[in-house]
């Protein structure tokens, strides 16, 4: 009986650890640099209205955020991709129960330097560039060598791009691997022959977004599923969100929160 009671107590402890709510007054958000602008802006506005709550937001990539959630070092993991099967297996082994909360839609924009005359690519041409089959802009209506800029492997955008654009083939070995959307945009802005990919919220005057299969990345084309590189954006929690985590996520999903999503250049849920 004592042994059985000990086993039951241990099981209860594991359950309580996996279902533990956010600590009152403190929420740690970590992960995707694509979701980062939404999380930062939402946190600022939320804390203005709820001064008793402190929300700490940092990037690092989707993989980093999910790993932190499973390790118990963050409360919300920002991710620009769905959780992987291996991560789910790790979650089970740790007594965690990651839940996906879709907070916005996004398109992965393919960008080049504004001096590049190329305005559109087919999906096949994009794949051929990033797998190394096309190495010169002259084959596409431009000139000079192509400098392929990619996200690093901890990035959810890297994972999504690999699946949506490259059919899971490997990125060319000479690609420049950058740690954030902003870093990719910065390299492309400074490099005439560069091509990169970023979340739609990172399109600005310093880079030029290309049409893909004749379709420009925009709110309308993403919502209508016309743009080939469209995806949802997530905030993962351990179990159903509660406490201050739930309040923060409810705010992001509210009309006011979705207005902030759109102001940051992303696509709110429901258009």
How would you sum up this structure in a few lines?
The protein is an alpha/beta fold.
Q: Supply the CATH architecture of the largest domain.
A: 3-Layer(aba) Sandwich
CATH C-level category of the largest domain = Alpha Beta
Our count of helices gives 10
Distance between the termini: 58 Å
Please describe the biggest sheet, giving its number of strands, its sense, and whether it closes into a barrel.
9 strands, mixed
Oligomer state of the chains in this structure: single chain
CATH level-four homologous superfamily name of the largest domain: Periplasmic binding protein-like II
Class per helix and strand makeup:
alpha/beta
Strand content: 15-25%
- Uncertain residue ranges: 1-21
Radius of gyration: 21 Å
Order of helices and strands: HEHEHEHEEHEHEHEEEHEHH
């Amino acid at each position: 009986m004592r042994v059985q009671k000990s086993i039951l107590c241990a099981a209860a402890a594991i359950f309580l650890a996996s279902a533990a709510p956010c600590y009152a007054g403190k929420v740690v958000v970590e992960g995707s640099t694509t979701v980062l602008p939404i999380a930062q802006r939402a946190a600022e506005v939320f804390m203005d209205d709820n001064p008793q709550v402190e929300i700490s937001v940092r990037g690092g990539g989707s993989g980093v955020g999910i790993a932190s959630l499973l390790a118990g070092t963050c409360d919300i993991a920002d991710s620009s991709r769905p959780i992987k099967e291996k991560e789910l297996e790790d979650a089970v082994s740790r007594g965690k129960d990651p839940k996906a909360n879709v907070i916005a839609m996004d398109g992965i924009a393919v960008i080049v330097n504004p001096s590049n005359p190329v305005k559109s690519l087919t999906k096949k041409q994009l794949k051929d560039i990033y797998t190394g089959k096309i190495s010169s802009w002259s084959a596409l209506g431009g000139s000079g060598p192509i400098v392929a800029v990619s996200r690093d492997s901890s990035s959810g955008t890297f994972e999504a791009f690999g699946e949506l654009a490259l059919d899971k083939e490997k990125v060319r070995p000479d690609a420049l691997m950058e740690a954030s959307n902003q870093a990719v945009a910065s390299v492309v802005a400074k490099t005439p022959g560069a091509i990169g990919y970023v979340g739609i919220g990172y399109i600005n005057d310093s880079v030029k977004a290309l049409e893909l299969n004749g379709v420009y990345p925009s709110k309308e084309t993403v919502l209508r599923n016309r743009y080939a590189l469209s995806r949802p954006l997530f905030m993962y929690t351990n179990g159903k969100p509660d406490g201050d985590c739930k309040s923060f996520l409810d705010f992001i999903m509210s009309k006011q929160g979705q207005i902030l999503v759109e102001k940051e250049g992303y696509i709110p849920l429901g258009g």
